[in-house]
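pinned: reference chain
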Amino acid sequence: MTIYKAPLTDMRFALYDVLGADTVLGRLEGGEAHTRDLLDAVLDEAARFNEQVLAPLNASGDQEGCHYDKATATVTTPKGFKEAYRQYAEGGWAGLTAHEKFGGQGLPAALGAMTKEMIDSANLAWGIYPLLSHGATDALEHHGTEWQQETFLKPLVEGRWTGTMCLTEPQAGSDLGLLKTRAEPQADGSYLVTGTKIFISAGEHDFSENIVHLVLARLPDAPAGSRGISMIVVPKFKVNKDGSLGERNAVAAGAIEHKMGIKGSATCVMNFDGAEGWLIGPAHKGLMAMFTMMNAARLAVGIQGLAVSERALQNSLNYARERLQMRALTGPAFPDKPADPLTVHPDVRRMLLTQRAFVEGGRVLAAYAALQSDIETRDADPQARKNAGELLSFLIPIAKGLLTEAAQECTKEALQIFGGHGYIAEHGMEQFVRDARIITLYEGTTGIQALDLLGRKIMQLQGAGLKHFLNEISAFCQANAENDTVKAFIGPLAVATKTWGDVTQAIAQRAQANPEELGAAAVDYLYFSGYVTLAYFWARSVLAAGGSTLSANDKQAKRDTATFYFTRILPRIHVHKAAIEAGVATLPELL
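pinned: its structure tokens
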């Protein structure tokens, strides 16, 4: 069985020492209640729940998977999953960050990001069930009517009900403009929804008494394409006007997918056969409501990448310290043993440091992005809220794209450290590799994140978020140019930041002549942006470590990992810059 120990020391370092989250949160609306003692207590309890309840179910859930009963169209989750969810709901975790007026605890998103990381490290497949509920909660909170919020949102926040996002269809894939599901208006104000949705995570299961499906569909008068999409809330069991449950609705799982990973998560084909539902938001404006869900989900999936990488690191580091293999190139490091531990070998240290660099740098990125969400929703200054919203919108595709791609590298390196044993199921590494593979795909592939970053956040929105971020990094570099603690990192960071701006302008200029230059550059631009972003957070981490309560060894480890990152990972930006400059001309049509 693989080990998992919640990295509370590093989480607190990221939140408090690097980002000063306790100070930032304290000045926001309701922040006087969000004391460090409260945040720490929640982190401690989350660690206990995830280490003791969810982590032991990870391997068994993968081995058992979900069971679909065709006769009843029901899904049974792996042994222990349902009971774990009962404890989760009773513990108040479902409403941790939800607004108090809907029954939530109203705790900060930055804290929610840390608790979510623990859940996904402990059991990624299980964590997908509440993830979809959080997305449905966000959409209903921002776009639902008062009746919809009272009827659907409160049970979601309590954890009695769960939610889904029903977007794609067999013919549509990521192109939602091609969807065909239709919604027919009824005299009582409801709609009857008919169509088939695929790849629906948590579409059917045995956790909750009702499942709330948020479905994209077309009304009879809908214009063609994505401008004709509406969002309909469709419960598994009909809901009466007083909120009580009625008869079974005409929606059911037609099958569950057989997948390479996250086997404890039910990925369903959902059939809607005239199912009763209600319109959320204005007609034909469903994508606006769905993007509320998708933005939250995309950051959450980025955290999934961080989480799987963390668990892979813990296990490969533990293995490398204990496994004896060969001798150090300089001679026996442990002559009293038959061989030296793997950690004496430089290439093993390279693989471990790669994982640590992405995990600890990625943790600061995730917490920073979540903190912008707190500022956007709770700051008293309208300009501060606007800036934070623009910054968060810009960072989401970077967090989702880079952290999920980094998880591919981290889990691969972890498996490599185990050697042949990594390929054997009993050691757990191959599950991490399989589970991590999906996170680059759902909620938008890496290519889609890259197009969102470059096409929308840079071109359409004139790079508002990028400007905020570049100004912040530049101010950090100027303020610390002569600071001996971080001086070695400031020069490379300043150069990389300026190059980032120059590359962005060059792409924009080329795209004016040929829009396909955006598509040709997008993925390399995302990587470039991600590597510079992590460089900034690593420089901040080194600065923060000096005045922190970290042990002397941990402080040195921060500096060593930052040095590794700046010398061995950040230079990857030069390869991506060269690829960007090669342009669309080097991508001929395949005949």
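why pinned: The radius of gyration is 24 Å. The chain is about 55% helix and 10% strand.
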